Amino acid sequence: MNEAAPTPAMTRQQQHFSASGRSALGIYRELAVGSGSWHQFLRYEFSMLLLSNLAGMLGLGARAALYPGLFRECGRRPAFGRGMVIRRPAQIGLGDKVLLDDYTSLDVRGEAGAITVGDHCIISRFSTIAAKNGRITLGPGVNIGSYCRVATESLVEFGSSVLVGAFCYIGPGNHQLGTDGTPLIAMEMEKKGGVKIGDNAWLGTHVTVVDGVTIGEGAIVGAHALVRDDVPPWTVAAGVPAKVIKQIPRNG
């Protein structure tokens, strides 16, 4: 008789969602709407089933008409692309004229998680905004390129009119290093206060910004940089790790 395989080391989230005694429906409902009512859950399911992949102008119009009621708040004239992943929409707020492109993800986990997207923001296709019991705020006019990931267990704050190139990774923390032989995957995350990005900053493609970093107003971060330390306002930083390479001249 074959012995059962030993339970592998897992993150706290993996342990939570794979715990015995929980129904698949209960796990899915927690992911989809959290502690929301059955009415909220059924409305969510109806909207996702019928509208998520509806193509063309009909799909765009139908999602713009019915999706707003799922969210904590939603401003005027939103645009929702096809195939979006939306988790716990009652913990997500959207401003006016927000554009969420095809296959974007707004993913809130935990009762303390929240996402706020300001007026005129654009989140491009295949990008993910994930608040895991943390808060993410995008100021007005933020433009996030394709295939980006913004994630936190604490805080990420974007000022206004921040431009983020494709394939950027913003907010990741590190697993703490254990001294007792505990596998890295099972260690708690080390939190350093989150990430703050000032107004009018610009991040080039493939930039990684780790937890605990502040990028100042008007700063530019060059492509493929790894930002581990603060970037002062109105400077250009580049490299691995990123270092300030020049000041940005300002009139007046």
The geometry reads as: flat
- Output the CATH topology: UDP N-Acetylglucosamine Acyltransferase, domain 1
Largest sheet: 9 strands, mixed
CATH superfamily: Hexapeptide repeat proteins
> How many H/I helices?
4
Just name the CATH architecture.
3 Solenoid
Strand content: 25-35%
Number of strands: 25
Describe the structure.
It is a single chain. With 252 residues, the protein is an alpha/beta fold. It has a single domain (71-247), classed as Hexapeptide repeat proteins (UDP N-Acetylglucosamine Acyltransferase, domain 1). The chain is built from four helices and 25 strands. A hairpin with a 4-residue loop joins strand 24 (235-238) and strand 25. The model has no long low-confidence stretch (mean pLDDT 91).
